[in-house]
User: What shape does this take?
Amino acid sequence: MGVNFREELDKAVATTYWEGEGEYNTKKEICNARFDLCPAVLAYCESATEVSDCIKIATKYGVDIRVRSGGHQHEGMCSANGVLVIDLSSMNQILDINEEKQEATIQAGKKLIEVYNELGDAGYVIPAGGCESVRPGGLVQGGGWGPWSRKLGLTCDNLISATLVDAQGDIKTISATEHKDLFWAIRGGGGGNFGVITEYVFTITKLPEHVMPFFSIYFGKDDLEKVLRGYIALMPELENELTTFCRVSIVDEDRPDRSTIMIGGQYFGTEEQAQKSVEKLRALGTPLSHNIEMVAPGEAHLLANGKVPLSVSGRSRSVITPQTFLFQLGNKEAPSSTCNGNPYPHKVSSTFPNPEPKHVYNDMLGVIIDQFQDKEEASTANLYLSIHSMGGAIADKHSDDTAFYFRDRHFILQYQAWWSDKDDPNGKDYVDWVIERRKELADYTSGSFINFVDREIPLSEYYGGNLTRLGRTRYDSHSAKVFDFEMSIPPIPPFDD
Ligand SMILES: Cc1cc2nc3c(=O)[nH]c(=O)nc-3n(C[C@H](O)[C@H](O)[C@H](O)COP(=O)(O)OP(=O)(O)OC[C@H]3O[C@@H](n4cnc5c(N)ncnc54)[C@H](O)[C@@H]3O)c2cc1C
Assistant: This one.
């Protein structure tokens, strides 16, 4: 790597952390504590020019690059041993909210919680993820599923343009009219493949006038089959204002405050409208408890900020996001929160149920019920399946309108295992549990969501019919020469006619 590389990089970028020095050990941490990776240097860039210089200097000295905004890539591929990590977390401002054009310019390293808060203060929202510490940098490029997706689409569907630093270090604006292929590719093609994005311009949507309810309904194990089958049948029929997830967990119900199945979500509308739909979900079983929370105009962001007290079963707890408080119902040895920014070891894997033939859901649900009914709780982990609702505005686009392919699916299935100690001797069992449970659904499912990435799944599963165009875009943009990691998209040269 050499003295010259260091000298040039330190001259170009104000804040760097070199292996073994200063705060390096803290700065190198990523969200998944299963991976303890040691890059040679982390460059905390504060401008597109600094990013550009990093790319040029790394290329000159033959140093591999990884890109990181929030560090949430589930397989740790935003980092690696011996590389230069270009970190965008210092580029964390909303640069502009233009009410006339209904647009906001947001830097790649802005935490979602801050995006929600600041846009919420101005009376606007973008549909993004359900976890506060995730950053748009990676989220958008994988598509981005979140609380308002059925109403407003995936995060990437709300993108107007982006500023991208390419493999040569050139800074360019990409949009539907400029560098169209790149703009198409970054909307679902997965982060780290096409360049370094420093900022995004999004369409913003006015928050509903009166309320933005968040709700959660908890059911016990006797209701598992009834509620699960009811949820899968009902959800696609409900209005787009409602985006939900259903979590099925392995929990020990002999201990109080455990719930085998819960449905949570957010309604983009008034309390009255929300109550009607939530009542349909409540009626799927006999709830152990439920909650529907209303907030005043412009305060919806408080739900995501832990400031609104939520009463569940007569107890008060604070809300952060759906995923966050879900953990409080699980194994007390495991992390109490997915979303508080602390790194925890975990494994996820995802797939989409096939939309046809009709009996697919019935047969698939039989397998899922067997996976969870009366199973023994893990001693140190939370093991569960999240079923995220799709449809609505997500399905308004075609599978090749953006690089996110699976527009016709009604749900994303995500198996998850979270535990607290990276040296936990059961860690491998938890990883295997996730992998095996997804494989058991192979007859009924296809594809996988790149944001819920699992290295065991071949790349073709993530991109379906869009893989070839993504490969061509990688080739044409020369990005593969510089942005190359274990699961990057292989470049495809043009056909020889
Ligand atoms: C706790 C948790 C909750 C999550 N919740 C959701 C959710 O609700 N919805 C959802 O869709 N996903 C969710 N995810 C998945 C998450 O969206 C993806 O992991 C996403 O890629 C994270 O982006 P990041 O910038 O935070 O992470 P990073 O690890 O920094 O980035 C992820 C990928 O994108 C690349 N990348 C990052 N920044 C840039 C950039 N500026 N330019 C180019 N490439 C870049 C990285 O190299 C890496 O390959 C969650 C993940 C976790 C760990």
About this structure: The chain has a mean pLDDT of 89. Residues 2-87 form a domain with the Uridine Diphospho-n-acetylenolpyruvylglucosamine Reductase; domain 2 fold (CATH 3.30.43.10).
